[in-house]
Amino acid sequence: MKRPSERLRAADPRDALERAADEAGAPPPASPRAARVELTKEFRFEAAHSLPRAPEGHKCRRLHGHSYRVTVTVAGPVDPARGWLMDYGEISGAFQGLLDVLDHRYLNEIEGLENSTAEILARWIWDRLRGKLPQIAAVTVHETCTAGCTYRGP
Fold first, then answer.
1. pLDDT > 70: what percent of the chain?
2. Whether residue 25 sits in one domain with residue 72
3. Annotated catalytic, 149?
4. What is the pLDDT of residue 12?
5. Residues 97, 52: one domain?
6. Of 13, 30, 78, 136, which one has the greatest count of Cβ atoms within 10 A?
7. Among 86, 81, 92, which Cα is nearest to 39's?
8. Do 22 and 81 sit in the same domain of this protein?
9. Catalytic position from the list 60, 90, 114, 149
């Protein structure tokens, strides 16, 4: 004959980890089924630009370059079957075409980047990724090690 606790376990639909945590008085472990996460993927490129709308005499009106660092963030629920939101390769694949357009270029010559501030560049990237990455949550553009802009969409 089964003991009362064994009968309860047999009828309990929770998984073994949740039951063990409950019996120990601990909170249940995080379940990938319920998790909402953010993934980030970083890209780097070199480019030159000038800011023609900066005040007269401002150093950024002159032609100069940056080692840009762009972080693309996607967000959403973890797929319980796979245990992830998406493959990082999907983010890389979506960004690759933009990298080809931006790397080792004069940004001011690219349509929409005639005044290529970090703010404008972040939105420009967002606008081109949102059709390929519906889970996009943010684009961060760093012009330097200490200065950047994050765009989170309209």
1. 78
2. no
3. no
4. 47
5. yes
6. 136
7. 86
8. no
9. 60
Note the pLDDT of residue 22: 56
DSSP string covering 127-154, please?
A: HHHTTT-TTEEEEEEESSSS-EEEE---
Q: Any idea what DSSP says for residue 73?
A: E
Q: Are residues 1 and 73 in the same domain?
A: no
- Catalytic choice (49, 66, 142, 143): 143
Q: What is the number of structural domains in the chain? A: 2
Which residues fall within 8 angstroms of residue 57, CB to CB, at 6 or more apart? none
Is pLDDT above 80 for 31?
A: no
Residues 55 and 129 in one domain: yes
Is 41 in the same domain as 107? Answer: yes
The yes-or-no verdict on residue 26 having pLDDT over 60 is no
Max distance between CA atoms of the chain, in angstroms, equals 90
Q: Residue 10: CA atoms inside 13 Å, Cβ hemisphere, count?
A: 6
The pair phi, psi for residue 75, each rounded to 5°, is -140, 150
Structural domain boundaries, residue 18: 1-30
Q: Which residue among 56, 104, 111, 145 is the active-site one?
A: 104
